[in-house]
């Protein structure tokens, strides 16, 4: 299988092999048509716009709007550059997956390291989705004060609208059917709806903000961070993992590319998706921070449990929270898809294709969703997950691995510009995330010893 422009001419899409290098898990006798441009844009945009959007207003609280928006643009530009280099080296090495490119550059060891990072990143991301879903429907107390969930606000506190039961029901009746789909292009309609629901959240938040501005209830936001001592400087770097996580989509680019009718479409797909998602991120960060200022929580949806000071405040707050909860439910299978493929190839590399082994498919799916479910019920805050996975596995997938592939340059196609950019990306990623890990470790240490002081 090739990933160049001639891929559809060399082998019919319906006869493509089903393994971790193939874009999907499918029946070899099933006739499959190529994915459309719009479907690819929505699937990639859905991969990008996930839980990160809910934490971005909190990053504005740390950075200020001016620096924060600038950082969103910078990370988007670096993401496009990383994906472009990744696709170029995929074509040169005839690799049809991110893991294949890593294997081509660094051998089996490089591929295994990549797959381990996918496991950490995607499991962490999906845990965040479930945490947010629990926050929205059942409430949260991770910030010290209890914030009422939608179901709790409607019906009061009951055993059946508690976090554990709500997440269990959501897993059985929503997540399980969606993650049972074996082809990512089958999710194009749910992805379109997911992006639309994110738009509903953005439009309503913008409308609430506009009304409050017209009433003079919102003051000029901070454009720059507040720096009082060295600790406040180090704290600036804690937002880096969140920003990196917000744009991570690299693990699905090959899958979407391999399902496209023409490979030449993938770069415009990536660019369109990044422009769309960057715009949504900037506007969400702007309106979210304008609304709640320094009271913005790690998960901004939790802020919508209060009276917003406008007509129909309660109704609008519920629509905002429910629309984004539904959005995350529809994003969930897009992130689960590459997680299952890479898990299978990592632990069962010599087994027959996963789509031909229903028992193994079911066991892997059940095992992964169980781990995610347990993690969502025992980890209190999305910020904790972002800091761990974002500063380790996610930054490797997003920037360090693509740059390392360029510097390895097994096929002699890297330009001096490519190598300079790659050194910059690795240096920036390592420096920023080491400081982020240090700052978070110090903060956690202080939090753990403060009750005994």
TrEMBL record:
Localisation per UniProt entry? Membrane
In terms of InterPro entries, this protein maps to:
AA_transpt_TM (IPR013057)
Q: Which Pfam families match?
A: Aa_trans
Residue span of region Disordered: 1-29
- The Polar residues compositionally biased stretches are 16-25
Q: Which residues cross the membrane?
A: 62-83, 112-132, 164-181, 193-213, 233-253, 274-293, 322-341, 361-379, 385-407, 419-438
Report if keyword Kinase is assigned: no
How does the record classify its membrane topology? Multi-pass membrane protein
Q: Which residues form the Amino acid transporter transmembrane domain?
A: 35-439
| Keywords for this protein | Amino-acid transport, Membrane, Transmembrane, Transmembrane helix, Transport
Q: Name one GO molecular function term.
A: L-amino acid transmembrane transporter activity
Q: Which residues fall in a compositionally biased region of kind Basic and acidic residues?
A: 1-12
User: Which domain of life does the UniProt lineage start with?
Assistant: Eukaryota
Q: Which PANTHER family does this one have?
A: AMINO ACID TRANSPORTER, TRANSMEMBRANE AMINO ACID TRANSPORTER FAMILY PROTEIN
> In its UniProt entry, what is this protein called?
Putative amino acid transporter, transmembrane domain-containing protein
């Amino acid at each position: 299988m090739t990933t160049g422009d001639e891929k559809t001419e060399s082998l019919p899409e319906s006869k493509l092999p089903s393994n971790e290098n193939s874009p999907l898990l499918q029946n070899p006798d099933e006739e499959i048509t190529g994915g459309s441009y719009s479907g690819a844009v929505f699937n990639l945009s859905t991969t990008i716009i996930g839980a990160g959007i809910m934490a971005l207003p909190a990053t504005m609280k740390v950075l200020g709007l001016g620096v924060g928006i600038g950082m969103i643009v910078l990370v988007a530009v670096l993401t496009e550059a990383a994906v472009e280099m990744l696709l170029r080296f995929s074509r040169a090495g005839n690799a049809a997956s991110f893991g294949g490119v890593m294997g081509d550059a660094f051998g089996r060891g490089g591929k295994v390291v990549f797959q381990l990072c996918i496991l950490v990143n995607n499991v962490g991301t999906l845990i965040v989705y479930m945490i947010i879903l629990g926050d929205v429907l059942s409430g949260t107390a991770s910030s010290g004060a209890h914030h009422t969930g939608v179901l709790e606000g409607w019906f009061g506190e009951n055993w059946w609208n508690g976090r554990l039961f709500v997440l269990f029901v959501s897993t059985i009746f929503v997540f399980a059917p969606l993650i049972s789909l074996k082809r990512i292009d089958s999710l194009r309609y749910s992805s379109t709806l997911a992006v639309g629901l994110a738009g509903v959240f953005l439009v309503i938040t913008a409308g609430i903000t506009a009304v409050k501005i017209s009433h003079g209830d919102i003051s000029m936001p901070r454009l720059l961070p507040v720096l009082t001592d060295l600790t406040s400087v180090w704290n600036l770097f804690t937002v880096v993992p969140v920003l990196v996580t917000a744009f991570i989509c690299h693990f699905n680019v090959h899958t979407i590319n391999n399902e496209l009718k023409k490979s030449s479409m993938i770069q415009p797909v990536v660019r369109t998706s990044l422009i769309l998602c960057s715009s949504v991120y900037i506007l969400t960060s702007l309106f979210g921070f304008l609304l709640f200022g320094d009271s913005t929580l790690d998960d901004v949806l939790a802020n919508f449990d209060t009276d917003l000071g406008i007509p129909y405040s309660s109704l609008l707050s519920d629509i905002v929270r429910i629309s984004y909860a539904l959005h995350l439910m529809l994003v969930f299978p897009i992130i689960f898809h590459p997680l299952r493929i890479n898990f299978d190839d990592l632990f069962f590399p010599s087994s027959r294709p996963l789509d031909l082994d229903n028992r193994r498919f079911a066991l892997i799916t059940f095992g992964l969703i169980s781990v995610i479910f347990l993690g969502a019920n025992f980890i209190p805050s999305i910020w904790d997950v972002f800091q761990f996975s974002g500063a380790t596995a996610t930054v490797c997938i997003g920037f360090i691995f693509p740059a390392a592939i360029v510097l390895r340059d097994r096929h002699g196609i890297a330009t001096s510009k490519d190598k300079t950019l790659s050194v910059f990306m690795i240096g920036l990623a390592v420096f920023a995330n080491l400081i982020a890990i240090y700052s978070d470790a110090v903060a956690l240490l202080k939090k753990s010893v403060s009750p005994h002081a």
